[in-house]
Write a structure and sequence with these properties.
InterPro entries: Diverse_substrate_MTase, Methyltransf_11, SAM-dependent_MTases_sf
Family: Belongs to the methyltransferase superfamily.
GO molecular function, one term: S-adenosylmethionine-dependent methyltransferase activity
Helix content: 40-55%
Keywords: Methyltransferase, Transferase
CATH superfamily: Vaccinia Virus protein VP39
Protein name: Methylase
Number of helices: 12
CATH architecture: 3-Layer(aba) Sandwich
CATH topology: Rossmann fold
Length: about 260
């Protein structure tokens, strides 16, 4: 296992409960929108990759026959399973998003929400999604994305990594689009929106020591005007209050591969 994946396991095993209760992950209109866009059928078998707190699996459970909630971190899955015991059609599988332990064309629907920036090799992730997805199956992904401009993208990824060492890289939309096309995932619908974080809720989710919190705060406070404007950094003389990043939501359909 790579160092990056070990850092993911370490981070999420320590913070499993925080990702169940996090407002950013547990709430949001995007959960209902995922159902609306994908139009699931009651006989579908669905896979949620990097399920985390299980919020997507829980959302889709009433709409499909079965949901497989997968995650790289065993402790995260165990904690999530304890919270979702009443959802009898959800099963749990320890799985690497870049090397899924499932047969070809196993799923009618695959979902992945706010997770792919932790994957060291997005190409392998998308290739695996396409492999285990049935022909004409649906894939819906939501994740933080980097701006197309290199300087803005570098600022964002540096910030994320300072706060969370398991962060690998947020890709720009153009890179995701190329990967989807390469692996026969035809984009049916997409949207980009600004997502605002309460600074303290965001930083406290993964950071425990005050020195690191101050380092992250200073990075935002010392940003040049272009960065402060793009990321909508809100501050007082004493503190950082909030900032915003871009989030992309995409619905794809798997095309014939021959």
């Amino acid at each position: 296992m790579t160092d990056a994946k070990q850092r993911v396991q370490e981070t999420f095993s320590k913070n499993a409960e925080k990702y169940v209760t996090s407002n950013t992950h547990a709430k949001g209109k995007d959960l209902a929108l995922m159902v609306e866009w994908s139009e699931p059928n009651s006989d579908w078998i669905s896979l949620d990759i990097a399920t985390g707190g299980g919020h997507v699996a829980k959302t889709f459970s009433p709409h499909v026959n079965k949901v497989v909630a997968s995650d790289l971190t065993k402790e995260m899955l165990e904690n999530t399973a304890s919270h979702l015991g009443e959802y009898k059609n959800i099963s749990y599988e320890v799985a690497d998003a870049e090397q899924l332990p499932f047969s070809d064309q196993s799923f009618d629907l695959i979902t992945c929400r706010i997770a792919s920036h932790h994957f060291p090799n997005p190409k392998s992730f998308i290739r695996e999604v396409s492999r285990v997805l049935k022909q004409d199956g649906k894939f819906i992904m939501i994740d933080n994305v980097a701006p197309e401009e290199t300087e803005l993208a570098d600022f964002m990824n540096t910030l994320e990594n300072m706060r969370d060492t398991s962060h690998v890289r947020c890709l720009p939309v153009s890179e995701w689009q190329k990967l989807c096309k390469k692996y026969h995932l035809h984009v049916l619908k997409s949207r980009t929106r600004k997502k605002t974080f309460d600074f303290h809720d965001w930083v406290n989710r993964t950071v425990e020591d005050e020195s690191t919190k101050q380092k992250v705060s200073s990075y935002l406070r010392d940003a040049d005007p272009t960065m402060k404007d793009y990321f909508q950094i809100k501050e007082t003389p004493e503190d950082i209050e909030a900032f915003s990043i871009d989030e992309w939501m995409v619905l794809c359909e798997k095309l014939p591969t021959t």
